[in-house]
Amino acid sequence: MSALRPVGLVADRIAWEERLLIKAAPDFGLRIDWVNDEALSLGHPDAPAVQGYDTLLVRSRSYTRGGLIATLAEAAGVPTLNTARAIHACENKAALRALLRTAGVPVPDHRLVLSRKDFEKALADLPLPLVLKPVFGGMGKRVTLIRHADTAHSVYDYVEDLAHAFEQASLVEPYLGGSSVRCLVVGRELVGAAEFESGGSDWRNNAALGNKNRAIAHDPDVVKTVDGVVDVLGPGIYGVDLFATPDGYVVNEVNHAPGFRAVASATGADIPSAIGRYVQELLA
């Protein structure tokens, strides 16, 4: 029997998804080891913490850590999945939308807000209700729905007073409803797609918040939009979040280290096997 190919799974912790990836790995000739992304100390030309792995599966949940680790690992000659370029793009919502829009992939109308004056201009340009969200961040954290103009500036007070300068960079965009479509992509393949709806007292439809979900068919418009994202970022493992609008789907954001429990539950898709097979093909 041939030896299993070593793969480093870079993450701050082992959650449900990581456990399944590690369990499925031997079926595809792989051995996946957890590499704690808080204890790498990269920068040495030989990068001893990551040498010996045929590739790194980067699943850091930090919105800055993954891209930095992937950049230094690639510089040390260790390939990463996703690539450093793709991870850096996904970590910055404003930069990602600029890349996608330039390539003709539809994204929501939005304004970059770096100051109170920017915020005032966004309020004047866009109709209420509006969503205020951080450029750097995920899991639905610090995403705020602004329904009324008379409370908008009070909301922005919290951005100014409680966030550090790096975290104050925000996007303002129209509220596009209480549902979104999460697409799980492996390589270039749309493995599963599910619709998430906000429920209870929480208006956000983020999969990480445990909202209602259901599988949806692979709509040609969904597939076309997802293909456009992969054309820009390159093949990889992505969670692509879409909003449906009267003019078609728009890309809300792309997660470079997607949780996939909710999509797997809704669709029955064997996502760990799809990822294991894809890594196996890359290493062949």
Give a verbal description of the structure:
With 284 residues, the chain is an alpha+beta fold. 35% of the residues lie in helices and 27% in strands. It has ten helices and 13 strands. The protein has helices at residues 16-24, 65-75, 84-91, 93-102, 116-125, 149-162, 165-168, 220-233, 261-267, 271-283, and strands spanning 5-11, 30-36, 55-58, 80-81, 111-113, 130-134, 144-146, 170-174, 179-187, 189-197, 212-215, 236-245, 248-255. The strands form three sheets. It has a five-stranded antiparallel sheet with strand order 11-10-9-12-13, sandwiched between helices. Strands 2-1-3-4 form a four-stranded parallel sheet, sandwiched between helices. A four-stranded antiparallel sheet has the order 5-8-6-7, with helices on one face. A hairpin with a 1-residue loop joins strand 9 (179-187) and strand 10 (189-197). Helix 1 (16-24) crosses helix 10 and helix 2 packs antiparallel against helix 3 (84-91).
